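Example record

The entry below shows one chain as it appears in the dataset: sequence first, then structure tokens.
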Amino acid sequence: MAKRASQLVIGIDLGGTNMQIGVVDAQSRVLGRAKKKTRASEGGDRVLERLVDGVHEACASAGVSIRELKAVGIGAPGAIDSRTGTVLEAPNLRWRNYPLSKVLTRKLGHHAVVDNDVRAAIYGEWKLGAGKGVDDLLGCWIGTGLGGGFILGGRLYHGFFNTAGEIGHMTLYPGAQPAGMSIEDVCSRTAIVNRLLRLMATNHASIIPELADGDVSDIKARIVAQAYQRGDKITKRVIQSAAEALGVGLANLVTALSLPRIVVGGGLTEAMGESLVSLIRDSVRAHALPEVTKKVEVVATKLEADAGLLGAALLAQEYVQKKVTRGR
């Protein structure tokens, strides 16, 4: 037991809709899990309470004591200063300059390594999934919002301001109305659902209400995927438009950084798979320049919902290893 205990960490993927928590060993095997709704509308304090409860549940699921852990890794939404473990700004959680690492470390009794949720997911994909084998990588996660992350020169890239990867906030349509300018405004699952709702409200026929059992107040990614697969006209129009626009934004990054591969993930990607990724791939290759960059690979996540959890766990394990090395 002592040998196993020395290898265990917690990985947490704190998303805008759900939180995934797992006890992870040195071979990146998830030994125990907990999944909870984020319920960001209730505020950051309540989110943190559920997160701590989830850590205890995951430990119970794995059959281990929380005392056996060595560190905690968490990917959190928003702008993160990973050097201090501070959430600079996470509007959905109502956190600003929130010392998440210090708070979690105090509550759990183990050091908490904090990074952006999508950056953690990209790191997991680079080490274990669809990003393996390249030193330069762009990740794009399509979910409640739209985020990204970079591996550059074989390292997770944070940038001077420690905010690298906020591709959802890149301006795509500078002349548009507010809340319609950025990539996230147009291409996130939230944006896609809102556009579908507006079209249905103006008498455009759709099978979405039928698929949602008449309740369109909270349309999930799987409903969008089902409507697309069944040939729903407005869903196909909206998805194709969003994929085209997203491809333009990603192509600009490929052109600027000469990137060989893009990994696309998030809830909408997991639900739609290659039918979405192929649309984005076609748009990226159509707009990337010079000609050689059109060879860029655009692939779907392999780790899917575990990408953020495993990436955060890897960051925690690296912290433990560095601590051991420094102690020698």
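Notes for this example: The domain at 132-301 is CATH 3.30.420.40 (Nucleotidyltransferase; domain 5). The first strand starts at residue 9 and ends at 14.
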